[in-house]
Amino acid sequence: MAGYDSKDLIVLEGLDAVRMRPGMYIGTTGTKGLHHLLWEIIDNAIDEIANGFGNKVVVTLHKDGTASVLDNGRGIPVSPHPKLKVSGVEVVFTQLHAGGKFGDNNYKYSGGLHGVGASVTNALSRYLEVTVYKDGKKYFARFESIEKNGKIHSGVPVVKLKEMGNTTLKGTYVRFLPDDRVFKDIKFDYDTVYERLKETAFLNKGVHIDLIDERTNKHETLCYEGGIRDYVSSLTMDRKPLFVPPIYIENEIEDTYVSLALQYVDNYTENIFSYVNNIPTPEGGTHEVGFKTALTKVLNDFAKKHTKEGGKDKKDKEIAFIGDDFREGLVAVLSIKMKNVQFEGQTKTKLGNVEARARVESVCTQGLTEFFSIKKNENIGNIIIEKARNAARVRQATKRAKDLARSKNSIESSMLIGKLANCASKNPDINEIFIVEGDSAGGTAKQGRDRYFQAILPLRGKPLNSEKKRIDQVLANEEIRTIIGAIGTGIGEDFKLDNLKYNKIIILSDADQDGMHIRCILLTFFFRYMRPLITNGNIYVGMPPLYKVSTKDKEWYCYTDEELSQITSKLKNYSLQRYKGLGEMSAKQLWDTTMDPANRSMIRVTLEDAVMADKEISMWMGDDVGPRKDYINKNANFNKIDTFKKNDENDKNDENEGKEN
After folding, report:
1. Of the ranges 44-48, 331-335, 347-351, 415-419, which one carries the lowest mean pLDDT score?
2. Pair 95, 77: CB distance under 8 Å
3. In what helix (H) or strand (E) does residue 613 lie, and over which residues does it extend?
4. 472 catalytic residue (yes or no)
5. Which of the residues 361, 437, 479, 651 is marked catalytic?
6. Residue 199 C-beta-side C-alpha neighbours within 13 Å
7. Mean model confidence pLDDT for the chain
8. Is residue 636 predicted with pLDDT exceeding 70?
9. Catalytic residue among 370, 514, 596, 655
10. Does residue 614 carry a catalytic annotation?
């Protein structure tokens, strides 16, 4: 065995650590990580604007694959750093955990808190150029990731910051090319960038953000004078608002700025989108708790006063409302800006500051109380209370159904006998459950699985589309109750992740329209009622092969049309099978291709943008056909060629040719 001494310890200096372990800094080297490089530069520009040092940001996607961000802020410091003896620009782009956001003097509020953003973008780029316009002078610097003696040195300053002349401009311009030695695909997606910038523009009212795509000559200017009021109006555009315009309040307390916009729509789900210093917090946190507490208190007080004064709801005065009743059909955007933000975990998805709860609760309580005390707003209060009353009635009527769904013994109940084939292991960390379409596929999966850690749950019918139904109707569906009982966490306010029985919940459906519909129905249900399973990374989509290509002595399984083309282009005589359903596979084939952890392909369902997910689910799974039809007409390729038919004909021609020979 080789010796292990101090000389064997590798010390990664500067940006080399980022290139060695990019996932630690940007999460992934896939498309999400690629766009994260751009977000870091955009966030720096927005921090300047949000703190009042400018009013415009221009993001450009260039033809050569680079992206650039220009702001009219103060410009990155150019003077030498007193300790490091290099320019401020070089410090920002080459030193991890360096920046002007750790103290209180430079930025009142900041989204970039860890000081690694700009330097990480530099480390994972082929090259990065910075132009600073400051104090009437123009400055330029260039960094490159250079390969030398088989090793890549990241973000090396090849052109030290130098003065380039006079200027009347102010601000910072950053242009970079993502490194194709790190990322498989370095092409920025226009729609992804557009949605991110649109969200940012909503959160920073009055700020102008230009998006220019030189590749397609697209140019969008985003500016919303109404801020998050316009945001909520946008979110409810394709739904049925119960009143307009949205309720809006804002105030500042103890260096915490709180703004809230909310509206109610004619459906049964709750949608609260919260942000801290422009950073989305899909897992909520103390600021959301403060808002919910204030909303419940104010509406309870309004309901009591309304009943006391002899309103039409006198007969229902015995109803005791809870917070969930007041949040049915709620669409709200809560945005706060504060110092010394503390997020729980590295993903910045849940706010942990204890003081935020009291401050948000105070601002929301005062603002909502003042709103509903105005005579002309009483009707809006009555509309909300009437909706809450209906929700409370349903809640009371469905308590037994909820108890059944979360019952400890529900898995052993008669409704699951003959359905769930459980695994032998009692360790949730290794256990996984396949939700399979139909008894035929379920039977094959039961035969092919590893019984120790893999459970199979066949669905005998199509689950209810939870986007169109109330909770009582959803829980009345046997397939939904079966899923809830099997997973073990409960749903809604009763959800407890600690009770999860399977670390991986894998949706395994046929590769046809019905299979895709079932997958969408299940994902909609998980998003609406068991969302922590998605944010925690427990939901997966199994990817069975679409084709099997066979020759006399070998066979290949193809999961995409591209794989099929690559393999068949190298073959002359082969047979081709298109799998229309899981039931067409043998148990061994299903194990080898789809269930064996060593060979299978799965997609983990993630939630990068809760707002976009909500809009997409509402469009595809909701009652309103119009937006769905418009999207299909705009984006569907009605002239798509059936490549399988073409390949199948070639296959038959090859067989006939072989017979003739």
Report:
1. 415-419
2. no
3. helix 610-621
4. no
5. 437
6. 24
7. 84
8. no
9. 514
10. no
